[in-house]
Amino acid sequence: AQSVTQLDSHVSVSEGTPVLLRCNYSSSYSPSLFWYVQHPNKGLQLLLKYTSAATLVKGINGFEAEFKKSETSFHLTKPSAHMSDAAEYFCVVSEAAGKSTFGDGTTLTVKP
Amino acid sequence: DSGVTQTPKHLITATGQRVTLRCSPRSGDLSVYWYQQSLDQGLQFLIQYYNGEERAKGNILERFSAQQFPDLHSELNLSSLELGDSALYFCASSRTGGHTDTQYFGPGTRLTVL
């Protein structure tokens, strides 16, 4: 069975400082992993995904994530936060068609 | 704009009623997913269709049903509504429905049950 744990429900950073959103997963197979972002009252948008190619994945808006099998982690990072990054972020694990499990989400606050 | 459309945007109804939510996938996408997002339960996968056939089922209540039509649009039917069904309902679509697919989400339908 697959599962995903987002280790922080809330993260607060200052504008211009690095962002780290942590995600651990559990899977019996070789999963695909995704990060989605949801701005208030909007649908989810893909930031990046890992599908067994390069372990360092670059996404939109300067975000990247590294797949670490030994640590079963897929943490999301960005070198410098922008006010527009304030949103909710979801880590997703998928090991079979139709079997996507979403984390509980991390709310990112960016202070000016 | 993801290319996925959902109607209506908002729906207010009473307990015991039945509603239908509609979703049109992105052009070329064959698979449609339905999700429920609420404050207490987070984002829950309900059901997936691929080219008109049910492919996977998640935490979908028996009072809820869905289908995907030949033109690939999908409808989610919610009946005997309860207060706890108030939530944001998202539709997503993907090219093939496989586990490596990116899912493209619609803007959601906010259902309020009074």
Low-confidence stretches of chain A: none
What level of helicity do the residues of chain B show? under 10%
C-alpha geometry of chain A: globular
Compressed to H and E, one letter per element, the order of chain B equals EEEEEEEEEEE
Order of helices and strands of chain A: EEEEEEEEEEEE
Walk me through what this model shows.
The complex is a heterodimer of chains A (about 110) and B (about 110). By secondary structure, chain A is mainly β. In chain A, about 0% of the residues lie in helices and about 55% in strands. Chain A contains no helices and twelve strands. The N and C termini of chain A lie far apart (about 40 Å). Chain B is mostly beta strands and about 110 residues long. Chain B has strands at about 5, 10-15, 20-25, 30-40, 40-50, 55, 65-70, 75-80, 85-95, 105, 110-114. In chain B, strand 4 and strand 5 (about 40-50) form a beta hairpin. The mean pLDDT of chain B is about 95. The interface between A and B is medium-sized, with 23 and 25 residues.
Summarize the structure.
The complex is a heterodimer of chains A (112) and B (114). Chain A contains no helices and twelve strands. Chain A is mainly β and 112 residues long.
